[in-house]
Design brief:
5-stranded antiparallel beta sheet, 4-stranded antiparallel beta sheet, Neuraminidase, single chain, globular, 43 strands
């Protein structure tokens, strides 16, 4: 957990209200906008989800800030207090973060898709006072490039993926110490109809000391793979996605584990608008649980991954819904889907639009971001109580 609160964080008024859900017909008001992003020099266009640390929400934006190269911000869960913690500067600094932050030993760690010494992305850390340090700049020789996924912690070391770079240019899995010593564990070699995967964009998940992940490209069907990798870099391809409809294909979001089964989102499906699928950690029993676009008001294009709340799965779609700007949905492990919220444009609502990031579950309330929409049309932070 993030420790060592800054003077600015200590200055948060003690009387700030906790989230107070209004009541309608005996049920908590499900959805509310917590914060409308303002645009440069404030935050703009969040593609990443949020991290919850010491009672505060932390996030990144791809744009905004003093140099319009992205930001790190924090927000009280009530929405009543916000702080722009850091503005990326580009150049040798990172720029345009699209991944979630990870809290480790009192500091937040993340990646930027661009910027750095070679303009191909960075790994950075930032403390609660807003002091940022670039730990690694990608793109030196056969190194990875353009990381889009958040970092994962295993045995005190950070692991991640890059969408490009590596020996063959199809991305990597890398490990990096808290001090910045980086090592490429695996360079992907497949893009078209090769055996290996290519261009990973999703975070890794740890199960019993082994890293698991997906790639949206490569594999013998050119539709992506599901793989396992040891901390030493030994890769095992567990499943190759089929590619043809109505199968799931091109998985691009993190997997979640629930009762021994992995769940994720991907493209494909009966209507070719995306899927929710399940698969065992051994790569067996891959099943399409749900195909989006079953009606004109259903969600489409599930860019974000899934979040577990009380044995159900929650997620967002980037498009679709009644207004075409995405949905927030619940799906059971047997494949029954319910749309909980339809994102829409304003006025008069000024709702969020086009959610791309995973939700987080904080004490039964889901928090998330939208890439577009809100009063300034540069994104929102929202909450929903299932």
């Amino acid at each position: 957990m993030l420790g060592g609160c800054s003077a600015r964080q200590n200055a948060v008024p003690a009387a700030l209200p906790q989230i107070a859900a209004t009541q309608h017909n005996g049920y908590a008001d499900r959805y509310r906008i917590l914060y409308n992003l303002q645009g440069p020099p404030d935050e703009a266009l969040p593609a990443a989800g949020l991290a919850y640390v010491n009672g505060m929400l932390y996030g990144t934006t791809t744009a905004g800030g003093t140099d319009n190269d992205g930001t790190v911000f924090r927000l009280h869960p009530s929405g009543g207090w916000k702080d722009l913690l850091y503005s990326f500067k580009g150049g040798t600094d990172g720029a345009n973060p699209v991944a979630d932050l990870l809290a480790v030993n009192g500091e937040l760690y993340g990646t930027t898709e661009s910027g750095g010494a070679h303009s191909l992305g960075t790994v950075f850390k930032i403390d609660a006072n807003g002091k940022e340090t670039v730990l690694h700049s990608f793109g030196n020789g056969s190194d990875g490039a353009q990381p889009e996924a958040s970092l994962t912690l295993l045995n005190g070391k950070l692991y991640g993926t890059t969408s490009a770079g590596g020996t063959d240019g199809y991305g990597t899995v890398f490990g990096i110490s808290a001090g910045g010593a980086e090592r490429v564990l695996h360079s992907f070699s497949g893009y078209g109809f090769g055996t290996d995967g290519g261009h990973p964009v999703a975070a890794l998940i740890v199960i019993k000391g082994t890293l698991y992940g997906t790639t949206p490209a490569g594999g013998k069907n050119a539709a992506g793979i599901f793989f396992a990798m040891s901390a030493s870099g030994e890769e095992t391809i567990l499943y190759t996605f089929e590619g043809g409809l109505p199968a799931a294909r091109e998985p691009g979001s993190p997997l979640v584990l629930l009762h021994g089964t992995l769940y994720g989102t991907a493209g494909g499906g009966t209507n070719d608008y995306g899927t929710v699928f399940s698969i065992s950690p051994s790569g067996e029993n891959e099943t399409v649980l749900y195909s989006f676009g079953s009606s004109s008001s259903d969600g489409r294009e599930p860019v974000a991954g899934l979040t577990v709340v009380r044995n159900n799965l929650y997620g967002t779609t980037d498009t679709g819904g009644k207004s075409g700007y995405g949905t927030l949905y619940k799906i059971t492990t047997t494949g029954t889907e319910t749309v909980l919220h339809n994102f829409s444009s304003g006025p008069p609502v000024h709702d969020g639009m086009d959610p791309e990031a995973d939700l987080i579950n904080v004490k039964g309330t889901l928090y998330g971001t939208t890439y577009d929409g809100g009063i300034s049309r540069v994104g929102t932070v929202f909450a929903l109580t299932p």
